[in-house]
Amino acid sequence: MFQFKKQEKSNLDFYNEEWLTLRWQQKDNPLGRFLIDYDNQSHTPSNSPLLSEAKVIYVSIKSVGRSVAFNQAADRAINNLIDAVGDKPIDRYSS
Q: Domain segments of the chain: what residues?
């Protein structure tokens, strides 16, 4: 019985590793799904503000009466996204 459990765990570990490898091969960047493919869009320039500019506007409006933690959380979240995929116009991101 012990040998079957050991083999079962070994198989499970193997397939989990294989699945993880396949997932990472499909996605270069875990946050890349938030970018719109430029090949499927017209190549016209965007008139939308950059994400960093939109963050400043958002925080200036929404932070009134809130704690410093709100500003820190918004900065951290947006900066992580910008670091991962770049500071793009806001209409170039998708969910």
A: 1-29, 31-95
Report the 10 Å Cβ neighbour count for 49.
14
As a whole number, mean pLDDT of residues 24-52 equals: 67
Burial of 13 (0-12, 13-18, 19+ CB in 10 A): exposed
- The CA–CA distances, whole Å, from 30 to 4, 22, 70 equal 36, 13, 25
- For the entire predicted model, the pTM comes to 0.55
CB 52 within 8 A of CB 13: no
Count CB neighbours of 56 within 10 A: 14
* Beta carbons within 8 Å of 91's beta carbon, 6+ residues apart: 36, 46, 48
Both tokens of 22, joined, read 């396949």
Q: Work out the average pLDDT over 32-36.
A: 59
Place of tokens 């090949």: 39
Q: Which residues contact 70 (CB under 8 A, 6 or more apart)?
A: 59, 62, 63
